Backbone:
């Protein structure tokens, strides 16, 4: 598949929306007119916070009059309706243990197609060697290049290793003590070859400065889409056994690094015995979904822990608004989009203090409760359970936290503020690119760029064979396409509930 550009004029409703949301002065669109987004998926196969963020920017920039091109790996299962209007795909190979994930590879033809798009700025919403494509555009064609830190790197190997290796102390020591620090150094070097880095929380700015990043860093929280999360609430979706006033909810991918096993144990030991009517509903799917269900049965809470599967994005607000408390034990979040969504919908939160995205969203004692994850995990689990029990028993306190959580989320995750911050990052990147690529020597491509890309992605593909393929999104909850939420009058929203 090659670059696809639909030359037909926009429908009337879309043109009207562009007129409403375009910057006031037409001159403001002279730069950047054409924006490229490097993304790990050109077809989004299942719920993925990073790709939802790319879809948000695609829609917001498109309705403001920009031409946005999505660049990513070829997906042989994609239909035309699932693809963005403008896209360039790279040759790819499937990642065996994650169906729907395709690992991109460089090619002369795909590089030429990207260059032909004549992009004014490129945003890398990915954490793979596809960053080298942005570097190539910057050095060869002087296209400003901005990276986004979308992945908590120390958690990556947990997803790839089978149980036998993941539980091996020597293997864990190698990955955590040697392999992942090396990967972080490589990533910091990549970021320093760009014109700016976007991080999703203030503490991640310090994290990357400590690891040697010297380019400008912009803190831009992810936005919540009001057209989705302010839509009319639907009928109560919870199982009949989940009584109002005692509903704990967690929404996330069901994978080891999300801390679901720990949450199940906290619920079984510290919450369920104290609040007999309490239930835990887990929305999501992933490679460890079945293992978590089995663990719930082992803990004796199978009748109080409801695994309802992945739900469509358009259904999530109803789950949030019919719940009583959002609980989160992940320590691998660069942001934690579900925390922002829950708060936006007026749901108080009890979470582990991760020192990253979740900690920046939850104000302890004001919008929810943050619990230190250690070093004494038994004590931490007790504090987490105690905090959840206290809020379940105190409806007045719960509602007060919910009100402030909603206020804070709507200020922090406001779409207009988010987009403006990206405009600022693009402008700074343009200045940085012009100043740092003035001489021919400064535009020399690193030796072995393509070889490094092929080598690292071949290693990734090899690691992907170590674990059996996951069953993902078994209920077929199709994520929104790139175009579905582009117009205010989209029938998808009208039929969402």
Residues:
């Amino acid at each position: 598949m090659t670059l696809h550009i639909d030359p037909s004029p926009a429908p009337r409703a879309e043109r009207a929306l562009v007129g409403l949301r375009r910057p006031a002065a037409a001159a403001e669109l002279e730069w950047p007119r054409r924006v490229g987004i490097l993304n790990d998926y050109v077809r989004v196969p299942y719920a993925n916070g990073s790709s939802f963020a790319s879809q948000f920017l695609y829609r917001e920039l498109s309705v403001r009059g920009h031409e946005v091109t999505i660049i990513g790996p070829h997906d042989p299962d994609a239909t035309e309706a699932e693809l963005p209007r403008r896209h360039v795909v790279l040759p790819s190979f499937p990642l065996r243990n994650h169906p729907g994930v395709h690992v991109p590879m460089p090619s002369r033809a795909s590089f030429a197609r990207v260059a032909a798009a004549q992009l004014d700025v490129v945003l890398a919403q990915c954490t793979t060697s596809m960053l080298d494509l942005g570097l190539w555009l910057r050095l060869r064609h002087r296209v400003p290049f901005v990276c986004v830190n979308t992945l908590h790197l120390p958690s990556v190997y947990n997803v790839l290793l089978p149980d036998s290796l993941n539980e091996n102390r020597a293997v864990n020591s190698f990955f955590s003590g040697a392999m992942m620090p090396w990967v972080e150094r490589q990533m910091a070097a990549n970021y320093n070859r760009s014109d700016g880095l976007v991080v999703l929380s203030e503490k991640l700015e310090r994290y990357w400065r400590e690891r040697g990043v010297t380019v400008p860093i912009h803190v831009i929280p992810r936005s919540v889409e009001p057209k989705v999360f302010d839509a009319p609430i639907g009928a109560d979706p919870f199982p009949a056994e989940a009584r109002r006033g005692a509903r704990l909810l967690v929404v996330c991918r069901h994978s080891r690094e999300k801390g679901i096993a720990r949450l199940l144990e906290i619920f079984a030991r510290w919450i369920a015995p104290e609040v007999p009517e309490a239930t835990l509903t887990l929305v999501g799917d992933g490679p460890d979904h079945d293992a978590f269900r089995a663990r719930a049965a082992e803990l004796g809470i199978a009748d109080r822990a409801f695994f309802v599967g992945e739900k469509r994005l358009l259904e999530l607000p109803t789950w949030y608004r019919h719940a009583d408390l959002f609980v989160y034990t992940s320590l691998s979040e660069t942001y934690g989009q579900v925390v922002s969504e829950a708060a936006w919908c007026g749901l108080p939160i009890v979470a582990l203090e991760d020192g990253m995205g979740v900690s920046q969203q939850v104000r302890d004692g004001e919008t929810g409760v943050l619990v230190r994850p250690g070093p004494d995990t038994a004590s931490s689990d007790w504090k987490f359970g105690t905090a959840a029990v206290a809020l379940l028993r105190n409806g007045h306190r719960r509602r007060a936290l919910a009100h402030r959580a909603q206020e804070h989320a709507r200020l922090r995750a406001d779409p207009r503020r988010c987009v403006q911050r990206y405009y600022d990052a693009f402008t700074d990147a343009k200045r940085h690119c012009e100043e740092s690529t003035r001489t021919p020597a400064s535009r020399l491509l690193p030796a072995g760029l393509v070889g490094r890309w092929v080598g690292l992605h071949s290693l990734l593909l090899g690691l992907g064979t170590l674990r059996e393929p996951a069953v993902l999104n078994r209920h077929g909850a199709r994520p929104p396409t790139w175009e579905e939420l582009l117009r205010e009058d989209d029938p998808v929203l009208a039929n969402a509930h």
Q: What stands out?
A: The radius of gyration is 23 Å.
